[in-house]
Amino acid sequence: MRIAILTDIHANREALESVLEDIRQRSIDRIVCLGDIVGYGPDPVWCVETMMRLAEKGAVVVKGNHDHAIEDAGEDLNSAARRVIDWTRPQLTPEHHAFLAGLPMIHREGDLLFVHASANSPSDWIYVVDAARARGSFAVCDARAIFCGHRHVPDLMSFGRDGEVHRQRFVTGHPLPLLSSRRWLAVVGSVGQPRDGNPKAAYAIFDTQKNELEFLRVSYDAAKTAAKLRGLGLPESLAARLMQGS
Questions:
Q1: What is the tens place of the pLDDT at every residue in 13-60?
Q2: β-strands 112-115, 145-148: how paired?
Q3: Distances in Å between the alpha carbon of 33 and those of 130, 235, 241?
Q4: Residue 37: is it exposed, middle or buried by C-beta count within 10 angstroms (0-12/13-18/19+)?
Q5: What pLDDT shows up at residue 35?
Q6: Mean pLDDT computed over 104-131
Q7: In this structure, are residues 45 and 95 in contact, taking their beta carbons and an 8 Å threshold?
Q8: Closest among 103, 67, 105, 102 to 88, alpha carbons compared
Q9: Kind of pairing, strands 165-167 and 106-109?
């Protein structure tokens, strides 16, 4: 099975459209979304409805902290994120609210685990930024491969027989074998708001038969999304970072 793994869409229609078109051109059996469908971006309704349709067709979708903030006004967010969530909430219908509220925090499928932030205390929204943070996820489960988002920066770590967590180098667009002698944690990156200096939308494909992971980047019209944000009077900082991938 070839699984396309998306995360941190953040109401960016142009980015999600481009990623889904790229997926359509590949042999993909299933889509998994690791959350944060809403937040930061100008098209929450379109993005939520798109993910609802995909879920009806068998896609797995888990909950992100911005999705959770739609129902929980007390969720800890920075000022720009809070402003967009407060704007987003009334744009959504009761059906949209129910979909986001009903998303699971974590999804386990065989030896694969999917979560927005970290496998340990997923509702605490821990950023997996280094080996020390990754260790917590490896410690709480026996999954061979853990896939997460939240950080908006693609990353890959492994847990070896020596009991140590190691950061693994990878090349975008080149499948990397996930050796069975190790356990793995992949931070997929962000579809709608990359923060690694590359403004292209990020997602990944995991081939369960070949046991290979491929990180991918897709161009999209970030200027159009930024113009929408400005037209809605949403924070300029969010428009600027789309163009910079920061």
A1: 999 999 999 999 998 999 999 999 999 999 999 999 999 999 999 999
A2: parallel
A3: 22, 26, 22
A4: buried
A5: 97
A6: 96
A7: no
A8: 67
A9: unpaired
**Tokens 């098209």 identify what position?**
43
| Sign of the torsion angle spanned by Cα atoms 47, 53, 56, 58 | negative
- Mean pLDDT, residues 182-206 taken together: 97
CB 58, CB 32: distance < 8 Å: no
Q: How far is the C-alpha of 214 from the C-alpha of 4, rounded, in Å?
A: 10
3-state secondary structure the chain: CEEEEECCCCCCHHHHHHHHHHHHCCCCCEEEECCCCCCCCCCHHHHHHHHHHHHHCCCEECCCHHHHHHHCCCCCCCHHHHHHHHHHHHHCCHHHHHHHHCCCCEEEECCEEEECCCCCCHHHCCCCCCHHHHHHHHHHCCCCEEEECCCCCCEEEEECCCCCEEECCCCCCCCEECCCCCEEEEECCCCCCCCCCCCCEEEEEEECCCCEEEEEEECCCHHHHHHHHHHCCCCHHHHHHHHHCC
User: Nearest 5 degrees, angle CA 93-CA 40-CA 99?
Assistant: 30
- C-alpha 9: how far from chain center: 6
Whole-model pTM over 0.90: yes
* Token pair belonging to 177: 């074998």
